[in-house]
């Protein structure tokens, strides 16, 4: 009897941070999965410190409040504002990256870690941007000498960090870095010492980039339903 093909791994969320640790882009697919934790599917506010245009997966108020009803109590309503969760995600990645270097030297690279509930993968680009992908649990790819296997099923061993590299080299370069309509909007000014500085005014709000992200996921057999 032929074995059934493994279910496609599910993408829960994607986070992209600037070199200054600001959240530039966020997408969340958890609401598409009925078996995702209730807190991960609950609506939430963007938060006071979030740049505009970072994410479409936020709400100003819960649907019950907008309808004049009493909000539900309990875990389904207990979700952090997006800016607070963004700080936690970045803090986890920063701490693990530093721990790996302290244990094994400056050349050590932290790529991912897994729990029974999810895999968190990370890419620190040459431009010092940080890409973080959270999916359903994935087995790490194994070396050919160990018999191969692991990685994303059906891809010949593609890792989730490899997917992030494709996102950075493909849609990010095409729709963000080289796109004057997005252009990583900045405002120029001077700091207290009179030095010129640039600050971001908006996140990455590009349909072309979103479609490119979903296309890369589909090519690598990762499930991320279109909004």
Automatic annotation (TrEMBL):
Instruction: Mark the transmembrane ranges.
Output: none
The lineage's top-level taxon is Eukaryota
Give the record's keywords alphabetically. Endoplasmic reticulum, ER-Golgi transport, Golgi apparatus, Transport
**Record keywords: Endoplasmic reticulum included?**
yes
Map out region (Disordered) in residue numbers. Answer: 186-207
InterPro entries according to UniProt: Longin-like_dom_sf (IPR011012), TRAPPC (IPR007233)
| Pfam families the record matches | Sybindin
Q: Major location, coarse class?
A: endoplasmic reticulum
The record's subcellular location field reads:
Endoplasmic reticulum; Golgi apparatus, cis-Golgi network
Mention any one GO cellular component term assigned to this protein in its UniProt record. endoplasmic reticulum
GO terms of biological process kind: endoplasmic reticulum to Golgi vesicle-mediated transport
Q: Which Gene3D superfamilies match?
A: 3.30.450.70
Which protein family is it in?
Belongs to the TRAPP small subunits family. BET5 subfamily.
The record describes its quaternary structure and partners as: Part of the multisubunit transport protein particle (TRAPP) complex.
Q: What is this protein called?
A: Trafficking protein particle complex subunit
Q: Which organism is it from?
A: Tilletiopsis washingtonensis
């Amino acid at each position: 009897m032929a074995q059934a093909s493994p279910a496609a791994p599910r993408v829960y969320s994607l986070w992209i941070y600037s070199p200054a640790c600001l959240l530039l882009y966020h997408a969340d697919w958890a609401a598409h999965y009925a078996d995702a934790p209730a807190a991960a599917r609950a609506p939430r506010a963007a938060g006071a410190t979030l740049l505009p245009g970072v994410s479409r997966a936020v709400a100003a108020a819960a649907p019950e409040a907008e309808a004049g009803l009493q909000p539900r109590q309990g875990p389904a309503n207990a979700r952090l504002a997006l800016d607070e969760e963004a700080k936690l995600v970045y803090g986890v990645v920063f701490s693990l990256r530093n721990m790996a270097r302290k244990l094994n030297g400056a050349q050590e690279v932290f790529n991912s870690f897994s729990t029974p509930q999810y895999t968190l993968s990370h890419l620190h680009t040459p431009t010092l941007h940080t890409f973080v992908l959270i999916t359903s649990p994935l087995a790490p790819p194994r070396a050919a000498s160990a018999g191969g296997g692991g990685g994303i099923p059906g891809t010949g061993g593609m890792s989730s960090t490899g997917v992030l590299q494709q996102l950075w080299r493909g849609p990010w370069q095409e729709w963000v870095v080289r796109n004057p309509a997005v252009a990583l909007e900045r405002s120029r000014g001077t700091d207290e010492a009179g030095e010129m500085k640039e600050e971001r005014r908006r996140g990455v709000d590009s349909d072309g980039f979103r479609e490119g992200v979903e296309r890369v996921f589909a090519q690598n057999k990762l499930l991320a339903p279109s909004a």
